[in-house]
Design brief:
Strand order of the largest sheet: 1-7-6-5-4-2-3
Low-confidence stretches: none
Oligomer: single chain
CATH superfamily of the largest domain: Type I PLP-dependent aspartate aminotransferase-like (Major domain)
CATH architecture of the largest domain: 3-Layer(aba) Sandwich
Radius of gyration: 20 Å
Helix content: 25-40%
Number of domains: 2
Number of helices: 13
CATH topology of the largest domain: Aspartate Aminotransferase, domain 2
Bound molecules: pyridoxal-5'-phosphate
Order of helices and strands: HHEHEHHEHEHEHEEHHHEEHEH
Mean pLDDT: 97
Structural class: alpha/beta
Length: 345
C-alpha cells in the first residue's frame, strides 16, 4: 500500500481538516499583534466560553504533554502528588513531564475499571498514607475519553468530583479526545466538565483535525493565576499565537469538532461490527469513542503488519489498537476488517 495510505495506528496520523486549514489561511492575511494579543486568539477564547457556557480562562499550548504537565503543575506544589490511572497518558507517555514541570510532584497510579478511575480507587490511594513522609495527594487527573477508548458518564465524573471535594483534591481532565466523549454521550461540554466538578480541562485539537495545539481551560479561575508565566517559561507561548488559535475558531464555529468526532466514533463502531464474528478476535474494551482494541493471535498481528497495516500493540500480548480519525475513509475500515478476517482464518 502507498506510504501515505490511511492507517489506524493513531488519530494523529491524520492531516488537517479543511475548517482548520482555511482559518489558518485567513489568519495569514496581513499582520497581527504577537504573543496572543491578537484578534484570532480573542475570538477562539470567546468561542470556548460560549461553547462551555461559562466565563473560563483559556490558554493555548503546542501539544498535550505540555498542556497536561503545565495544568497539573498549576494545581499542586512540588511536595504534592497527583492521582491518575495506571494507564494514564501522563503516567505512561509523557516522559516524566508532569513531574518535571511541577518540580517533583509524584504521580500515584490507581486501579482502573476499563481504563476509568472510580471514587473507591481514588480513595484507596488518597488515604493509604497520611504521614509527612509521603507526598500529599492534591490532584486527580482523569482522561476523557480514556486511553482504552472508554468514556466517563457525567454521573461518574460527578461522583469522582464529590470524592475530590471530600478529600481536598483538585480535578483535572486530560481531554485529548474530549470531542469523541462529547459525541458518544451526546452531552454538552459543560455537562462533562465544570457542571460535573472539573477544575481544569486540556482540550485536544491535534487528534481531531488540527495541525498542533491544545487548549487549556480553567473553570476554577483562581487556579489560573500566573499560568501565562508558566506557559512562557516552559517554551509554550507561541509568538505567532494566531496560528494556534485560528484553527480552533475554524473547528468550533460550525461544530466541525463534533461532526468529526462523531465520524471517527462511527468508523470505530463500524470496524468493531465488521470483525465481531471473526473467530479468535474479541474486543478488549467496549467501543465508545474512536478506538477499537482487539485481542487477536500474535501470528495474525504479524501478518497484518506484513500486509502494510500500522497499529499499536502496546496493550500487552495479543492486543492491537486501531484508532479512527476525523477523516477515516469507511472503505479503508472495510479493507482492514477484511484483512483481519483473512489473517485469522
Ligand atoms: C495524544 C494524547 C495526549 C497528547 O499527546 P502529545 O503527543 O503530547 O500531543 C495526551 N493525552 C492523551 C490521552 C493522548 O492520547
Amino acid at each position: 500500500m502507498p506510504d501515505n495510505a490511511q492507517q489506524f495506528a493513531s488519530d494523529n496520523y491524520s492531516g488537517i481538516c479543511p475548517e482548520a486549514w482555511e482559518a489558518m489561511a485567513e489568519a495569514n492575511q496581513g499582520h497581527q499583534r504577537a504573543y496572543g494579543d491578537d484578534e484570532w486568539t480573542a475570538r477562539a477564547a470567546d468561542h470556548f466560553r460560549s461553547l462551555f457556557e461559562t466565563d473560563c480562562d483559556v490558554f493555548f499550548a503546542f501539544n498535550g504533554t505540555a498542556a497536561n504537565s503545565l495544568a497539573l503543575s498549576a494545581l499542586c506544589q512540588s511536595y504534592h502528588s497527583v492521582i491518575c490511572s495506571e494507564t494514564a497518558h501522563v503516567e505512561t507517555d509523557e516522559c516524566g513531564a508532569p513531574e518535571f514541570f511541577s518540580n517533583g510532584s509524584k504521580l500515584l497510579t490507581a486501579r482502573t475499571e476499563q481504563g476509568k478511575l472510580t471514587p473507591a480507587s481514588i480513595r484507596e490511594i488518597a488515604l493509604k498514607r497520611k504521614d509527612i513522609h509521603f507526598p500529599k495527594p492534591r490532584v486527580v487527573t482523569l482522561t476523557q475519553a480514556t486511553e482504552v477508548g472508554t468514556v466517563y458518564r457525567p454521573e461518574e465524573i460527578q461522583a469522582i468530583s464529590r470524592t475530590c471535594d471530600e478529600l481536598g483534591l483538585n480535578l483535572h481532565m486530560d481531554g485529548a479526545r474530549f470531542s469523541n466523549a462529547c459525541a458518544f454521550l451526546g452531552c454538552t461540554p459543560a455537562e462533562l466538565t465544570w457542571k460535573a466538578g472539573v477544575d481544569v480541562l486540556c482540550f485536544g485539537g491535534t487528534k481531531n483535525g488540527m495541525a498542533v495545539g491544545e487548549a487549556i481551560l480553567f473553570f476554577n479561575r483562581d487556579l489560573a493565576e500566573d499560568f501565562d508565566y508558566r506557559c512562557k517559561q516552559a517554551g509554550q507561548l507561541a509568538s505567532k499565537m494566531r496560528y494556534l488559535s485560528a484553527p480552533w475558531v475554524g473547528i468550533l464555529q460550525d461544530d466541525a469538532w463534533l461532526r468529526y468526532a462523531n465520524h471517527a466514533n462511527h468508523c470505530a463502531q463500524l470496524l468493531a461490527k465488521l470483525v465481531e464474528d471473526v473467530p479468535g478476535v474479541s474486543l478488549m474494551f467496549p467501543v465508545e469513542a474512536n478506538g477499537v482494541f482487539l485481542q487477536m493471535s500474535e501470528p495474525a498481528i504479524a501478518a497484518l503488519t506484513a500486509r502494510g497495516w500500522r497499529f499499536y500493540t502496546f496493550i500487552g500480548a495479543g492486543g492491537a489498537r486501531f484508532m479512527c480519525s476525523w477523516d477515516t475513509d469507511e472503505a479503508r475500515v472495510r479493507q482492514l476488517a477484511a484483512d483481519i478476517r483473512q489473517v485469522m482464518s
